[in-house]
Amino acid sequence: MPYALYVLIALIFIPEQNKKWFLRRKWRQWVRLLDADQDGVISADDMERTNAKLEQIRRLVGARNTPLSAQEQKKWWNNNIFKSGPGKSISMTDYISWLESSAPPHEMASKLKPMVTGFFNFFSTEDYEKKNLIMSEDDFVKFWTILADINERHCREVFVKHIPSPLTMAYFMEDFVAFLSHNEFWNEYGYRVFNILKYKDTSRCCRV
Predict the structure, then answer these.
(1) Given this model, what pLDDT does residue 205 score?
(2) pLDDT reading at 190 higher than 70
(3) What's the pTM value of the predicted model, to 2 decimals?
(4) What are the residue ranges spanned by the domains of the chain?
(5) Average of pLDDT values for 188-195?
């Protein structure tokens, strides 16, 4: 193969593979937020334990006065996570395969936004988000230490260096949508949540 053709193929295909790998890595981070026992399978027990964390966030952050009903909680999990059937466990590999096939890259944000909105409904509401109340640094730290056991110092460093001020719950939710849907390394919106979660990724190098 002529060298020039080899270079051309590399320029076309390798960046696309890197984008695919990067998005998969972020999806693995998302699965780990839901997989409470970190065994690589999201189960009904993981659902209960993760819901307890989200309830703790609701009480501490104060963006929702009453808990989301048990029926609505299960509905979100069944519609968005348990793709093998209602309440049935699903492996990280199978879930990521479903995400990858759920929409083409340019439609991924619109596809996943309802899922993220439903996730935020566990501890926030649409009315609260419309108020554009400022989310404090302490609330930001509480969120990540409860949900993902992220080191407080790391949370504060990311908040100061990478999070635009003022931060609101609505902006925070949009960052989550970007995190799950944008495959470009240089996209600042998609990189913010990744930047928090990569702290826990340093000892993990598995690939789907």
Answers:
(1) 39
(2) yes
(3) 0.86
(4) 12-201
(5) 85
Q: Are 121 and 68 within 8 A, CB to CB? A: yes
CATH of 12-201, one of 3.40.640.10, 3.40.50.450, 1.10.238.10, 3.40.720.10: 1.10.238.10
> Rounded to whole angstroms, how far apart are CA atoms 173 and 1?
48
* Residue percentage of the chain with pLDDT more than 70: 87
Mean pLDDT computed over 22-36: 95
